[in-house]
Design brief:
The structure holds two protein chains of two kinds. By secondary structure, chain A is an alpha+beta fold. Chain A is built from 15 helices and ten strands. Chain B is of the alpha/beta class. Classes of the chains: A alpha+beta, B alpha/beta.
């Protein structure tokens, strides 16, 4: 059967064909825009979540991830960090000590996570130094001072300049106690950090928690996401096999983020597949109608010697052409809209203010790739061709003598 | 192998609401090559049923049909389709052209199914349309042709593949008398010039007058079989 016959058959009922084309095109536009925007928003999620505190890679004691204990440290951490700054691009590296303590003000006590940070390097791997709402960030690497989350400060009823007592356990099991002066409050945009985090200079942390020159994490940021595994391998090689440390990616140190993205993606796909199924039924309806109203004609074709397979192939061709028309229009329009928002950014009320407050982009940039653009049209094509199989296979059940006399 | 069609004890029984309806009751029929045969009889006499069985469009309840020596009962659906494609032509009462194809494309349709190249089938279709006096109308679609013109396109489609047998079911039923006479003259010409065997089923006296052999069916049996001059 020739494609010309299939094409002409499509336009026997132009209004019905256009309505079906419109349904395919509209769903294609919607899906392309939603998928590219969804993928683009994940970039922001990841950048924001990692940028606030976690970084993209962390060098830790090999067992620290499973058992984050004080004694599981990386030796000569500042020396290793210096080496990385010298040998690895992009050289955004900072050392951290991580401990837990009872944080007490004059009025109240709360459990807190105490982070020893390098004041000079921390701004390169974390946005916390840039989201100080009151006061300032840490300056002196050895000073007994702290910046704390705004929520924790409220809970402890602390004001700038107040003293905060930290009481925990050192690496050697001894009591770690210090009194630090609160020099700043931060609002990171991540509630759990604002509620528990206390940052003090690394030198003071190492002294109080009897760390020596060790630390718990060397945080690395600023890596192109596609280069992450390459960089991890490169740094692993640089450290050497006996370094007593392991390079972890954010997917290992922050598994919740990956799971959240996967869950969001799953929710999105439930919606997308539902939309595709609705469109598929629309196509199925069109083709069932077409087959039913052309039963007599198919009977004539059978009588003239056409095999059911050839007539079935004709129906499949019609389905393919109809879907391709809808997809072509949908991809063109969808791509146009996506490119527009790729250039201008997509935003909605509140996003700009929120972004400005917590230091991430004020608009979402859709992700344009063969995958994000091509996924929806491909899925629609597959679904509609599968749907067209049903009316096409019905031809095999036609008996010529009955089909010829069909009304 | 001089007989185009041989039917032996051909029986067709339809079940309608658990009632057996005997459409054909043991028909024996031999149609020699180049015959121009007319099946007549009242409605329900079995004319169309017999045509459908000879054309392999339906299967008999008992008995046997042979076309060009081939036993239809031994053929599967695909082989029957091939038989219809290469050896049979059909002309239906209501023309039954494909509405989205032009006259010449309708004629080419069968040749295309046979796998003939575009140039070859176009040449052949053009020639046969000229023979049925439709020059200049090749590119009109069925909706732009009169009933007589459409039926001539249907005739051209039926004979373009040079079948050994054309089955025509009430070919003049929707035509006025002048057009019907022209059509029958054309079919007779095709029979004489191309040696095609024709079997008609009809109520139309004109068709009976043109036939060389008239078989009258009654209640699924052959009531009369007469040769005409």
């Amino acid at each position: 059967m020739n494609p010309r016959l299939a094409w002409r058959n499509l336009w026997r009922h132009p209004r019905r064909t256009w309505l079906t084309v419109a349904a395919i095109a509209f769903s294609t536009v919607l899906l392309i825009f939603s998928i590219t925007l969804q993928f683009g928003s994940y970039d922001i999620w990841i950048d924001h979540a990692l940028g606030v505190y976690h970084g993209q890679l962390q060098i830790q004691h090999p067992d620290y991830l499973d058992k984050p204990q004080m004694r599981k440290t990386v030796a000569n951490a500042t020396g290793v960090a210096a080496k990385l700054r010298r040998d690895v691009d992009p050289r955004k590296v900072a050392v951290r000590g991580i401990g837990f303590a009872l944080a007490s003000s004059q009025e109240r006590s709360y459990g807190a996570q105490v982070i020893g940070v390098e004041p000079g390097y921390e701004p390169e791997v974390s946005t916390i130094p840039n989201v100080i709402r009151d006061g300032r960030f840490l300056a002196d690497p050895d000073a007994a001072e702290a910046v704390i989350g705004a929520t924790l400060a409220r809970n402890l009823k602390l004001a700038l300049g107040d003293e905060l007592t930290l009481l925990g356990a050192g690496r050697d099991g001894s009591v770690a106690a210090t009194v630090v002066q609160v020099v700043g409050f931060f609002e990171s945009g991540m509630a759990e950090l604002d509620r528990v985090l206390v940052e003090i200079p690394l030198g003071h942390f190492q002294e109080v928690f009897t760390m020596g020159d060790a630390a718990h994490a060397i945080v690395i940021a600023g890596i192109d996401r596609s280069e992450l595994d390459v960089q991890r391998d490169q740094i692993t090689t640089l450290l050497g096999a006996d370094a007593g440390a392991r390079v972890r990616t954010w997917e290992e140190t922050l598994p919740g983020l990956k799971q959240a993205i996967q869950f969001d993606m799953l929710q999105g796909w439930v919606l997308y597949v539902s939309l595709i199924v609705v469109v598929t039924f629309s196509i199925l309806n069109t083709f069932l109608m077409a087959v039913l109203e052309r039963t007599r004609e198919f009977g004539i074709m059978l009588a003239l010697g056409a095999s059911p397979a050839r007539i079935g192939a004709l129906i499949m061709q019609e389905s393919l052409l109809l879907t391709l028309v809808g997809l072509s229009i949908g991809v063109l329009v969808g791509l146009g809209i996506t490119i527009y928002f790729y250039i201008n950014g997509f935003t909605y009320p509140g996003l700009e203010e929120y972004g400005a407050e917590f230091g991430f982009p004020a608009s979402i940039t859709p992700e344009i790739s063969f995958f994000s653009i091509g996924l929806a049209p491909l899925a629609i094509l597959v679904f509609t061709l599968v749907a067209a199989l049903y009316p096409a296979l019905r031809i095999f059940g036609l008996r010529p003598v009955e089909a010829i006399h069909a009304v | 192998m001089d007989d185009t069609v041989v039917c032996r004890a051909l029986t067709k029984v339809y079940q309608e609401d658990s009632v057996a309806v005997h459409a054909l009751r043991g028909i024996d029929l031999v149609v020699p090559r180049h015959d121009f045969l007319c099946l007549s009889g009242p409605s329900g006499s079995g004319k169309s049923t017999l045509l459908n069985l000879i054309g392999g469009l339906d299967s008999p309840s008992a008995g046997e049909v042979r076309v060009d020596g081939l036993k239809l009962a031994e053929m599967n659906r695909s082989e029957l389709a091939q038989l219809r494609l290469h050896r049979l032509g059909f002309v239906f009462q209501s023309y039954n052209l494909i509405p989205v194809l032009s006259a010449i494309e309708n004629v080419e349709f069968v040749l295309q199914l046979q796998g003939m190249s575009f140039t070859q089938r176009r040449r052949k279709a053009r020639a046969i349309l000229a023979e049925v006096d439709l020059q200049g109308l090749e590119h009109r679609r069925p909706g732009e042709l009169s009933g007589g013109q459409q039926q001539r396109v249907a005739v051209a489609r039926a004979i373009v593949s040079e079948p050994s047998l054309v089955l025509a079911d009430e070919p003049t039923a929707n035509l006025d008398s002048v057009t019907a006479e022209n059509l029958m003259a054309l079919l007779r010409h095709m029979n004489e010039e191309h040696g095609v065997t024709f079997i008609f089923s009809t109520h139309d006296k004109l068709v009976m007058d043109y036939s060389r052999r008239l078989i009258k069916l009654h209640d699924g049996e052959i009531a009369a079989d007469e040769r005409r001059t």
